[in-house]
Write a structure and sequence with these properties.
The chain is of the alpha+beta class. Helix content is 32%, strand content 21%. It is built from 40 helices and 59 strands. The strands form 15 sheets. The protein has a five-stranded mixed sheet, covered by helices on one side. A four-stranded antiparallel sheet has the order 1-57-56-55, with no helix packed on it.
Length: 1504
């Protein structure tokens, strides 16, 4: 297979998340414009010994728009397959060996933004588009499936390397989702944390989550998982890490098993060495990632300015990273990096390849982190090539990306040793020329007319000429100075000056010693020397003969003029070409035949190359100019314009040409024979240069962003293609969407000449208007040309006219028929079109009917003259003449005013009928009937801004009326804002505000009212309130709050802000209310904010919220106690069940003393509550706060808050020695726990606040205290809780039950016992009960503490409380029975109402009747009791309850019968534990008051 030519490729596409990839074995590919370039890396690249082992080996061509994604198949056996996605809407699968498309699909309806070949499924290609649609395409079975996980713009996606069904997708707004494609795209996790675009996603190379230390959870957030929700087992629950890079300057590591972030890496801002910091560098961040396969604890990322960082994930909290290429200066990228991809070569080297905005592809050794080699690329058209005559082998390349490349083509160590020069350029480089003698001196010209000199041997910025061309610089040449620059001594002027030819058609002479001086137009010298009076032709090309004695100028009209130094005497004119001359080159003078040095080759837009021998003319030196019309040789074969020519410095008469037909052709000019044809470019060739050292080596550049180095002997073709290549390029260009332009007429000689205007047909002109579009889509930052409608060296012609001399007329009128068919296929695109050349649209006639009548037949025109003469000379008009004037209304232009008005009326009707009312209005204005114009336009709804603007001419009242009419018209057209503006112009402010308000333009209405009305005007406040209510209804609370503040209603603003309900909104609302002086509202909102923060265990935030208001000092004490209590309860839990997300204060971590001591200590040290007066003040504030009674449905956090409120009251009362208040507060906390069914919390309260029992309180109260009844209730609940603990310890003794029971059996012989909740002992009870009570064994006996407790249970056997509770149960049962009877009655009435309605077939009727057939036992009992009987029972029970003293009814008491049952059960299971007297008392109470159904059932259960 023939080797590929050496290629300087286009730049990799920018802002694509995956447009480069590498396959195992050493093949690397990157997307550039509409193609993919392949690079062989490693020993098989065939590089020169000592040179970097890589080579561009091919190109995948097939897409018509930018390639946005590229990925290889990484499955053994199909490394030769790859996939691409493009903006043309297709995904193509390629075989890189054949460089052909295997298959493709066009499933996406929107622009494709991400692509990946699954690393686990060998035929799965996944792609995503900007609308959020994901397509999975299976290659082998040609099947596809699409998902729509999120309605967001997809930025990147990556398939999991461990689970074939998992896919991670990153979106533009920073969301990352993981979906399961086997479950129809079900979202497994939504990972929230980034704030901006997701640029890269990388899976950890190792499955599982054991490779990283996960202890940086302070940067992660707890996922919102409902309590008790079981997550189904999926592959992701096995765990894997995922890394994401975002534009928000962070890298996040995520745990896929937990669905949350575990690590955040913030990019460092590295200051560049030797340079300043670009302030906009952060704005252009692109963060791409690579997770090395063999280094799971390390991660590679890009940084702000093109640096590469290797992160150590084991020490992420220290932000430890290693910078790539620290030992070598200048090896890093200079701009942001877009893609990273790993590659393992054939010899086992681990490499990393990167693409960047600096247009370099770099290869890094992952072992040393050093740059191995750099592949430069081009970001624009290759406009110009020039070899240095001094430093042989240095090739300068002028590129459309605003940079000059200097390529050392003779380098042995590196085939791509390229230096870039960009300072001072800032535009497309369209022309280059080396100084013939001075090393490193390079002249350049740009498309904005700039001419400058670069010293390539230094880093100095270029010298820029102060004289600019008006158009693009197309050619530069060094030549001897001519006047006036040649005047003076040898030391006062340079030996060579710089000549530049620009698109405006002039040639300037620049002094290289003083570029800041003025450059001279040589046209003046040419005119003066040759006594030329006519206008000089437009110059398009300049070329100096090698000896510097003769200069050739090519012109826009196809002529070539030969001038002799020093005064530029015109020797001859070559009239051969008939189109614009693009290239002129003189044959070299160092050949074996010196006479050939007089050969001059030229190429133009007519595709034919002419060679002329000027030896006779140069030797004879004629006195008058000679005209040459016959060529020495003619080289035909190209099918489009010739853009560049170069003679071989190694041969005699061998020429190479570059052409728009996409090929470069080598000719034997002397024999007129084509030798070799190069067809490697995918675009139109713009420049060509012959190597000065290798006779077979030629360099060519084109609009495909490529420069190729190719050998003549390796070409398969000898002549240009006969139209085929040209047609392909034309189709490629025409496939791009372009605006349609109208055809242009061929300009005449009187108008400024367009390029090739002499012989361009209308068909050719229309083709030129569809100029080529350069697909520089890789540049989205404005630095790379996206469109390039002009291509040098085809200059734009200036606006000067060409003089009409006889010779030029003869040339222009002649038609060139050579290759006429070929030239029609491909025409030169237009350059920048001067305004004078653009076709001006002819204005529509104001009097079209009159004009058309003046273009009738001669007889009719003569008749018009007779009628007009009769009308003007007759004293009285007869009927015939009047009828003629009526018919010939256009004669009104020549008669009286009345006839003129009739003509205008007729013309106006014609304008209205043809749909041009503006012309009718102008005619009315001509008549002076401005009011009539306005009225007519208003009636037709055709008032315009211009008509209203001239309305004041008709008077003030007319103007007011016109403005109002126009405002109404605008309202009908839904242009309410504009209508309001017009109303304001006539000072109708209230009407304008009402108009805006009624159409919901509140923002605009407020702006108008604020600007034009008084601040205290009620309209303004009404606007604020109306808009605020609408915003509040729509959920825009923050803006609604601003409205209420604008209306000076801070209370409403705070209330609406608080409606959001989250902690941040509540805190803001509280601060707002505090600022506004709404103290009560501020306090309530601050308390709500603290309660919201309490739900997420943010104790610090809760205290900060409470600190916003001084009146919440008491609540701060409550929350302090609550925090310490939660910490106390959490410390008793096993470590594995503790919540890691709680944010405690520092003072909550101490453990010295009991809970009450810790609470009072924190109050003193943190809240400065240490005096009785302060405690009494806090107590007074807290006593005003009342909470509802707890139920079994009360949330635990809310229950804790209520309990801690009561406990705070108790402690504050204790601090003020108010013992009569301590007991009720403490009892209330116990009752809250008891009624909510939280037995554990009740016991914790007793253990924390009454660790030694109730004796201490009894001593403090005394016997005559008013709180004695409350104390007895508190003591009863204490004994009640201890009773249950004795029972549990007997059922299953554990490590904490030794205080109640003692075992005589060794621990290893005991059997574990099951326990259950005491909520089964009775309905509504708070205490749990064992599931089964084992028989007493010899290994258990009661301790003395238990015996004392059981003896104290007599306090629970209160007959008064038992009687009261029995009466209350009777009332409850009666009420339940009455409710059941009412329900049954309603059901029976409903059945009667529907008996005659629906048919018996109605399943709804059957459903209604079905429950009524079998009666439950409860219904039978209810049916046996009459209503009077129930009323009697209820009355008696209420009477008994009323007889009890208030001290008994005020304070709840444990259920006496429940305690009797538990005590009897203990006595039956463990004989001797309860004395007989207590058992007898319990049985008597049960027999007397245990008549309810529930207690009868539980009696049977506990005695079995």
């Amino acid at each position: 297979m023939k080797p590929e030519p050496l290629t300087l490729p286009p730049s990799p596409n920018w802002y694509c998340t995956r447009c480069s990839d590498a396959a195992p074995g050493g093949i690397f590919g990157f997307a550039a414009r509409t193609s993919v370039f392949l690079v062989r890396v490693g020993p098989s690249a065939g590089a020169n010994p000592g040179a970097p082992p890589f080579r561009v080996v091919g190109e995948l061509v097939g897409h018509t728009e930018r390639v946005s994604g590229f990925t290889f198949s990484h499955h053994p056996g199909q490394y030769n397959l790859c996939a691409t996605s493009s903006d043309d809407g297709t995904v193509k699968i390629w075989n890189i060996e054949t460089k052909a498309v295997v298959t493709e699909h066009s499933l996406h309806q929107h622009t494709i933004s991400a692509l990946h070949w699954s690393p686990t499924v060998k035929d799965l290609i996944v792609s995503g588009d900007e609308k959020g649609v994901v397509f999975c395409y299976w290659l082998n079975r040609n099947d596809s499936q699409h998902f729509f996980p999120e309605p967001r713009t997809i930025f990147c996606l990556t398939c999991s390397p461990h689970h074939e069904d998992l896919l991670a997708i990153g979106y533009k707004d920073g969301i990352v989702v993981i979906i399961d494609i086997s479950k129809k795209g079900e979202v497994i996790h939504r990972l929230r944390g980034h704030d901006d675009e997701i640029h890269s996603i990388a899976w950890c190379p190792l499955s599982g989550e054991d490779c990283l230390p996960v202890n940086q959870e302070e940067n992660s957030e707890e996922p919102d998982i409902p309590n008790g929700k079981l997550v189904a087992e999926t592959p992701i629950t096995k765990g894997c890490y995922l890394a994401t890079g975002s534009k928000d300057q962070t890298i996040r590591i995520w745990s896929c098993s937990r669905g949350r972030g575990i690590m955040v890496l913030k990019l460092p801002f590295l200051k560049r060495r030797g340079g300043g910091v670009d302030p906009a560098v952060k704005e252009r961040l692109w963060l791409t990632l690579h997770w090395p396969n063999n280094q799971p604890t390390q991660l590679v990322s890009s940084c702000f300015g093109g640096e590469l960082l290797l992160w150590d994930l084991t020490q992420s909290w220290r932000r430890k990273y290693t910078l790539f290429s620290t030992s070598t200066e200048g090896q890093n990228h200079s701009r942001i990096i877009f893609n990273l991809c790993p590659l393992k070569t054939e010899d086992g080297k681990q490499l990393l390849l990167s693409t960047s905005m600096d247009r370099d592809v770099k290869c890094w050794d992952m072992t040393t982190l050093e740059c191995c080699w750099t592949l430069p690329s081009l970001g624009g058209f290759a406009y110009s090539l020039a070899f240095s005559p001094v430093d042989v082998g240095c090739l300068a390349i002028g590129v459309g990306d605003g940079m000059i490349r200097v390529w050392n083509t003779l380098s042995i160590k590196n085939n791509y040793e390229v230096k870039s020069f960009w300072q001072g350029v800032k535009s497309k480089v369209t022309a280059l020329c080396w100084h013939p003698n001075k090393e490193g001196c390079l002249a350049f010209g740009t498309d904005d007319g700039k001419v400058g000199l670069y010293d390539t041997c230094s880093n100095k910025p270029p010298q820029i000429s102060s004289t600019y061309h008006k158009k693009t610089v197309y050619r530069l040449a060094w030549g001897p100075p001519v006047p006036p620059m040649s005047l003076g001594g040898e030391g006062d002027r340079p030996s060579l000056t710089l000549y530049s030819c620009g698109g405006e058609g002039i040639v300037l002479q620049h002094n290289p010693w003083k570029l800041s001086g003025e450059a001279f137009n040589i046209n003046k010298l040419v005119r003066d020397t040759n006594s030329i009076r006519y206008k000089l032709p437009v110059h398009t090309e300049i070329s100096w003969k090698g000896d510097g004695k003769v200069m050739a100028l090519g012109n826009e009209d196809g002529s070539i003029e030969i001038f002799q130094v020093p005064n530029l005497k015109l020797l001859c004119t070559i009239q051969q070409h008939h189109k614009l001359v693009n290239a002129i080159v003189w044959h070299h003078e160092h050949g074996s035949r010196p006479e050939l040095s007089c050969l001059i080759a030229s190429g133009s837009n007519n595709a034919v190359i002419y060679v002329h021998n000027l030896r006779t003319v140069l030797e004879s030196n004629p006195e008058s100019p000679v005209t040459i019309t016959e060529p020495f040789r003619t080289l035909s074969g190209h099918t489009a314009k010739v853009t560049s020519l170069a003679w071989s410095p190694h041969h005699d008469g061998r020429l190479v040409s570059a052409c728009y037909d996409g090929t470069a052709q080598v000719w034997d000019a002397l024999r007129e024979e084509p030798l070799f044809n190069f067809r490697g470019h995918q675009g139109r060739l713009l420049c060509v240069a012959w190597s000065p050292v290798d006779p077979e080596c030629i360099y060519s550049g084109a609009d495909d962003f490529c420069v190729y180095r190719w050998l003549t002997s390796m070409q398969d073709h000898s002549r240009p293609p006969q139209g085929k290549k040209c047609i392909e390029l034309e189709k490629k260009r025409l496939s791009q969407p372009k605006p349609k332009l109208k055809k242009k007429k061929k300009p005449t000689l009187r108008l400024p000449v367009k390029q090739d205007s002499s012989i361009v047909t209308e068909d050719e002109s229309s083709r030129e208007t569809s100029g080529p579009v350069e697909n520089g889509v890789s540049d989205q930052d404005g630095e790379e040309e996206a469109q390039e409608p002009e291509l040098p060296p085809s200059p734009v012609v200036s606006g000067e006219a060409v003089s009409c001399i006889a010779v030029s007329l003869g040339v222009e009128k002649s038609k060139v028929t050579v290759n006429s068919k070929a030239t029609s296929l491909k025409k030169e695109p237009p350059k920048e079109k001067p305004e004078a050349l653009l076709k001006k649209r002819k204005a529509r006639s104001m009097l079209p009917l009159s004009t058309s009548l003046d273009h009738r037949s001669k007889e009719e025109l003569h008749r018009d003259c007779l009628v007009l003469a009769t009308a003007t000379h007759a004293k009285e008009l007869n009927e015939d003449v009047s009828a003629d004037l009526e018919e010939r209304f256009h004669l009104g232009l020549f008669t009286d005013r009345a006839t003129l008005y009739r003509m205008m009326e007729t013309e106006g009707k014609g304008h209205l009928e043809s749909g041009h009312p503006e012309l009718f209005h102008q005619l009315m204005l001509w008549k002076g009937d401005l009011k009539g114009v306005l009225q007519a336009a208003a009636e037709r709804g055709e008032l315009t801004d211009s008509l209203v603007a001239v309305a004041p001419v008709a008077g003030y009242s007319v103007w007011l009326w016109a403005v109002e009419a126009f405002a109404k018209q605008l309202c009908f057209q839904d242009q309410y804002v504009k209508a309001a503006s017009y109303l304001l112009s006539i000072h109708k402010v209230y009407e304008a505000v009402e108009l805006l308000k009624s159409n919901h333009f509140y923002r605009e209405a407020i702006a108008v009212a604020k600007a034009r009305l008084r601040p205290e005007d009620p309209v303004l406040k009404d606007l604020y309130l109306s808009w605020g209510s609408i915003l509040e209804r729509d959920g825009h609370y923050a803006i609604a709050a601003k409205c209420y503040l604008g209306a000076t209603s801070a209370y409403d603003a705070a209330k609406v802000l608080a409606r959001k309900g989250d902690a941040a909104s509540l805190r803001t609302a509280a601060e707002l209310a505090s600022i506004a002086g709404e103290s009560e509202l501020a306090a309530s909102l601050a308390l709500r904010c603290a309660q919201e923060l309490l739900l997420v265990k943010n104790w610090v935030g809760a205290q900060e919220a409470l600190g916003l208001h001084e009146s919440l000092q008491g609540q701060r004490l409550v929350f302090c106690l609550l925090e310490l209590l939660c910490r106390h309860l959490e410390e008793k839990q096993p470590p594995e069940v503790r919540s890691p997300s709680s944010i405690y204060h520092q003072w909550a971590t101490g453990s010295e003393g009991n809970l009450v001591q810790r609470v009072t200590g924190v109050w003193r040290s943190t809240f400065s509550v240490d005096t009785p007066e302060q405690c009494r003040a806090a107590l007074k504030k807290l006593q005003n706060v009342k909470y509802p009674s707890a139920t079994s449905n009360t949330p635990f956090r809310q229950l804790l808050l209520h309990v801690c409120h009561d406990l705070t009251l108790a402690i504050l009362s204790q601090q003020t020695a108010s013992w009569e208040e301590v007991v009720p507060a403490l009892l209330q906390a116990v009752l809250q726990s008891y009624t909510s069914g939280n037995f554990t919390l009740m016991q914790e309260i007793y253990s924390a606040f009454l660790p030694s029992g109730c004796d201490y309180l009894r001593d403090k109260l005394g016997d005559l205290s008013l709180a004695t009844a409350a104390f007895k209730s508190l003591e009863a609940f204490f004994i009640y809780g201890q009773l249950y603990e004795v029972w549990w310890s007997l059922c299953g003794p554990g490590p904490e039950s030794s205080i109640w029971v003692k075992s005589t059996v060794p621990a290893e012989q005991r059997e574990p016992e099951d326990s259950a909740s005491a909520e089964d002992t009775e309905p509504g009870a708070a205490a749990p009960q064992p599931r089964s009570s084992p028989p007493s064994g010899p290994g258990l006996r009661l301790s003395g503490e238990s015996e004392r407790l059981l003896s104290s249970c007599r306090e629970l056997f209160s007959e008064r409380h038992a009687s009261l509770q029995a009466s209350q149960r009777t009332v409850a049962e009666v009420q339940e029975t009455l409710a059941e009877m009412i329900r049954q009655h309603q059901k029976s009435q409903l059945c009667k109402a529907t008996a005659n309605g629906p048919s018996t077939d109605d399943p709804g009727q059957e459903a209604e009747q079905a429950p009524s057939q079998p009666q439950s036992p409860r219904e039978e009992r209810n049916a046996s009791v009459s209503l009077p009987e129930l009323t009697r029972r209820l009355t008696e029970a209420n009477k008994r309850i009323a007889e009890f003293p208030e001290s008994v009814k005020a304070w709840p008491f444990p259920d006496v019968l429940e305690c009797c049952l538990v005590l009897l059960h203990i006595g039956s299971q463990w004989p001797g534990a309860v004395n007989s007297e207590m058992q007898q008392q319990a049985e008597e109470l049960l027999q007397k008051y245990g008549h309810t159904r529930a207690y009868r059932r539980y009696c049977q259960t506990l005695h079995t």
